[in-house]
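Exam prep: given the inputs below (a chain plus protoporphyrin IX containing FE), describe the expected output before reading on.
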Amino acid sequence: MKRTTLAVSAAALAMLVWAPAAVLADTLYERLGGAPALAAVVDAFVDNTTSDEVIAPFFATTDMVAYKATLADFLCVATGGPSTYHGRSMVDAHTRMNITKEQFAHTVGLLIKAMQTLNVPQAQQDEVVALLDPLEGDIVGR
Ligand code: HEM
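Solution:
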């Protein structure tokens, strides 16, 4: 093998070894603190929703244990984490609920409150909200 080919191969190998670690470390999921941090956010968010007089009625018949696990998977995938999401699409999950824009904003507010309680840095809170805001069209008015 020529010296240049060897040098290129060594560089390619180095990228293969280092690139995945660099990419993983850079995901919002990792920066939030991974699975335990997301589980804490989900717990705090669900506490907020079930004690909120506007939002709690929506969850009157929901299996909250299953919902927490599904929501955690959803947020894991959305933030670039390693889970697989097996739940329904956002349209299917929220159809026939007639959720209003105000209720959507209020729910996002309850998630922000959960992240504030857990001292999630403002920049990462903003990143999470930026991921959820585009879902409004799938969730509202269904
Ligand atoms: C902020 C963005 C939202 C996200 C990312 C989100 C995500 C999810 C996910 C992942 C599920 C589970 C789906 C499944 O089990 O297949 C779900 C279910 C549910 N969501 Fe949302 N949701 C959002 C907003 C809302 C809002 C605004 C309301 C009501 C005001 C709401 C009410 C519900 C209810 C009641 C269920 C459970 C349905 C059941 O009992 O099976 N969600 N949501």
